[in-house]
Amino acid sequence: MRNADDTARRAAFRSRLAAFALACALAGGARAAAPASRAVGEPYTFAVLSGVIASADDEPHARRLLDAIARDRSVSFIVYEGNLKGPKEACRDQLYEQRNVLLTTSRVPLVLLPGQFDWAACGTRDAGAYDPVERLDFLRQNVFSEPASPGANPLPLTRESEVARFHPYRENVRWVRDDTVFIGLNAPGPNNRYLTAGGRNGEFEDRVIANAFWIDHAAEYAKRRGARALVIFLEGDPQFERYQRSERFGWLRFNRPRVRDGFREFKRALVKAAAVFRGSIVVVHPSGEPLANGFRIDRPLRDDKGDLVGNLTRIAIAPRARLNQWVRIGVDPAKQPMFNVSVQTVPKHLPQPPALPVVPHDDTPLPEMPEIPAPPTLPDSGASGAEPPGYDEWHGAHDDHYDHRASGATPGQPPGAPLLSSRPDNRGFGQPGPA
């Protein structure tokens, strides 16, 4: 009986010993696997451009700029944040084709986002009085149709159009590099193309829903991947200082109407994303005002309670010489902060690339409308030649655009902006702030 008890105790001891050894092995394996799953990627950089080409005369300079970027071997990709054409260029099919051919000459993968002059402002007289929504559809079918970026070294892209509900939105994209998730949005200036005239803002209303979904999806995706950062690109200036928080007694404003913030849903989606994804969120967009250093870094977003969103950083870019400068953003996952920003200038000695073949332009005029006979002149009508009421207002419509070319002083940084500066044109950031 005693031998049986001893045998049982020894068996139980061996079982506990084996369980302890297994637990140690699993713990050791977990410790060994953790660094592998969170392996730090190699440092790299990417370039950001916007509004480089305003006329045909700018095309050779744009090619030289792309060539200069490609000579920096650390650059992994380029993001062109909108405006392949200028405000006074007609939104013709052939012009889009010509500029798209120019982009394909880039030796570095290039991700294009649509901008104000690419479609939203195509309804102006200088742009040819096109239907902006029709021009956007043309871009979607001819420029944003492929599952990769244009050029000799395409970058695989995930497009929002892969989601059945948002099939039209081919221009909204996502890609990944190491532990950083990148997305691009169609959100042009000014004011995200919110129309103040009468009628329904159907295009705007549908697009802000698609954009908010893409931000929500990116935050969840980055969280599941265990990413360190989420970077968001757009062409429009969101004007974070205009964030309209929920008003409990907004009706008390009576006769104080306020212009509707076209980026309201965008900012609210960012607040939600910052709560879901606790890593660094970086928003990159062209500035609507001149910046002396060519860029500005700050933390401009607050939630509905007025609390600072500490893990969101904004980079507003505005190089002073748009044809000869580009914004360089370096990423080093092993450092804190992991991002740094600088403005690079094209060397003067850099040769000009050979000219591209010109895509024939369709300059065939539209068919003329049949002439309508003038009404008979009234006996007492004067011969002063005065125009009917409203003529000057209609024909003198101004260009609703802004210029990304920058000069002048940098606005003051808000208190607490996460700036780490080694020199005036190189700043680092990216460390998650307080919740």
From TrEMBL:
Residues 392-406 have a biased composition (Basic and acidic residues). Residues 352-435 are annotated as: Disordered. It comes from the Bacteria. Residues 1-32 form the signal peptide. It comes from Burkholderia oklahomensis. The lineage of its organism: Bacteria, Pseudomonadati, Pseudomonadota, Betaproteobacteria, Burkholderiales. The keyword Protein biosynthesis does not apply. Keywords: Isomerase, Signal. This is FKBP-type peptidyl-prolyl cis-trans isomerases 2. Residues 367-378 have a biased composition (Pro residues). One of its GO terms (molecular function) is isomerase activity.
